[in-house]
Design a protein that fits this description.
The complex is a heterodimer of chains A (about 160) and B (about 270). Chain A has about 160 residues and is α+β, with helices and mostly antiparallel strands. Chain A folds into two domains: about 80 residues, Beta-grasp domain (Ubiquitin-like (UB roll), Roll), CATH 3.10.20; about 70 residues, [2Fe-2S]-binding domain (DNA polymerase, domain 1). Chain A is about 35% helix and about 15% strand. Chain A has a five-stranded mixed β-sheet, covered by helices on one side. Chain A is globular, with a radius of gyration of 16 Å. Chain A starts with a strand and ends with a helix. Chain B contains ten helices and 14 strands. Chain B is globular, with a radius of gyration of 19 Å. Classes of the chains: A alpha+beta (about 160), B alpha+beta (about 270). The interface between A and B is medium-sized, with 29 and 32 residues.
């Protein structure tokens, strides 16, 4: 069956790729574009490890077909550190030991970043509500919430 | 697992969608938000031969605020409704239920009409649609018809929508005077599939009680407000009249208990909200 040609913008860069109708964005990112930062875990949208943003909205890349991304703006974990410097969330995640095995971390960071872009002063409840779609089986979430709070504080101080 | 192969058709107009549906019917599946569909494709529960992507349609409404109704089009996302500034004042029931609809990730992409047409018995939006007795407009090559929520759900993931039809519009009645709305849900963890979900609309004359999660489709029952003092008995009768079975999440006894207790609390909240 004929492949589909898709033109999209990934982390600010114009990108063109060919995909099968049944390929998800996640498949294309990991297999064809060698962007393996976004993780595949459940493929059913339950775990959030594959979180990316599409036109500024947080989505599970396993639940979006690659063909649907025509003319969209995609942001992935690869676009988070700028010029070799960590994003503030990446820094606070390390400082608070908010990761262990690391599989959920890219999704957590992308999700937390999209929260802080909308709200730089979230309450603990708001953080937990926002990250409810991202599962972590190691940390028990507490350190993740603390890292997001610390990042929010740093963003507010530098604003 | 990965989806089976299918033909992907990107359509730019409703007429184009109707042409494809007319020829291929059940073999074709409409993709809007895809938050249930793509997950079912990934698990190979769904194996359509054709996927009609309607995300690029231009000739559809998004949200229109009419006198007594809110009209919603096929590409209006759940997150957009959640962020709509008038949601609380116009659709208080949806306002209460929408945080339970999937996670932020799913609501960003999932559509209102998609969820309602998917008709998952554990979903919140079909339940609210039934509680409010909204109306859905279905279009096919043969013409347009509307159907009320009371007649829409036939069984698990089964609705009166035919395979040659596309839902093009939905109407929710807006908040009425002297009417109370309440929503409640019990699940294993926040935002998981509902073990039981309740949406209640109460006014001076009647209690409209809807139950999701337990029966195989969203189920409604109405009681006269005059019988309010017998609400415990009415709920108990309702629970025993449903064909409830044990499953891996909860026993039938527990589920009947949820109907009696959480159901009653939801009714009481709706009365308080009048």
């Amino acid at each position: 069956m004929a492949k589909i040609q898709v033109k999209t913008k990934i982390n600010g860069e114009e990108t063109e790729f060919l995909c099968q109708p049944y390929d998800t964005v996640l498949d294309v990112l990991r297999r064809d574009l060698n962007m393996t930062g976004t993780k595949e875990v459940c493929s059913t949208g339950d775990c959030g490890a594959c979180s990316i943003t599409m036109d500024g909205r947080l989505v599970c890349s396993c639940l979006v077909l690659a063909a649907e991304t025509e003319d969209k703006k995609i942001e992935t974990i690869e676009g988070m550190a700028k010029n070799g410097k960590f994003n503030v969330l990446q820094k606070t995640f390390l400082e608070h030991a908010a990761l262990q095995c690391g599989i959920c971390t890219p999704g957590m960071l992308v999700a937390a970043k999209s929260l802080l872009e909308k709200n730089t002063n979230p309450t603990e409840t708001e953080i937990r509500y926002w990250l409810a779609g991202n599962l972590c089986r190691c940390t028990g979430y507490d350190k993740i919430v603390k890292a997001v709070q610390a990042a929010a504080e740093e963003i507010r101080e530098n604003a | 697992m990965k989806p089976c192969n299918f033909k992907y058709i990107k359509s730019s107009s409703i007429n184009e969608v109707l042409d494809v549906l007319d020829i291929h019917g059940e073999k074709a599946q409409i993709l809007a938000g895809g938050q249930s569909l793509i997950s079912m494709l990934n698990m190979r529960i769904a194996n359509p031969e054709i996927i009609i992507d309607i995300n690029f349609l231009k000739d559809v409404i998004s949200l229109e605020n009419k006198d007594n109704t809110i009209e919603i089009g096929p590409l209006f996302r759940q997150l957009e409704l959640e962020n709509w500034s008038d949601l609380k004042s116009k659709l208080p029931l949806i306002y209460q239920s929408i945080p339970y609809v999937g996670q932020i990730q799913h609501r960003a992409r999932g559509t209102i009409l998609g969820s309602i047409c998917h008709g998952d018995p554990t979903s919140e939006l079909p339940l609210c649609f039934l509680a409010l007795n909204g109306k859905i407009y279905l279009k096919s090559k043969k013409g347009l018809r509307s159907i009320s929520a009371n007649d829409f759900y036939l069984g698990p993931l089964l609705t009166s929508k035919n395979s040659n039809e596309i839902a093009i519009k939905l109407e929710f009645p807006t908040k009425k005077e002297a009417t109370g709305y309440a929503f409640n849900e019990v699940s294993e963890k926040y935002s998981d599939y509902a073990i039981a979900s309740f949406a209640v609309v109460t006014d001076d004359n009647k209690i409209r009680f809807t139950l999701g999660g337990i029966p195989s489709k969203p189920t409604v029952i109405e009681w006269d407000m005059k019988n309010f003092e017998f609400i415990d008995e009415l709920l108990n009768d309702f629970a025993w009249n449903l064909d409830i079975e044990d499953d891996q999440h909860a026993s039938a006894t527990y589920k009947r208990d949820l109907i009696r207790k959480v159901g009653k609390n939801t009714i009481l909240s709706s009365v308080k909200n009048i």
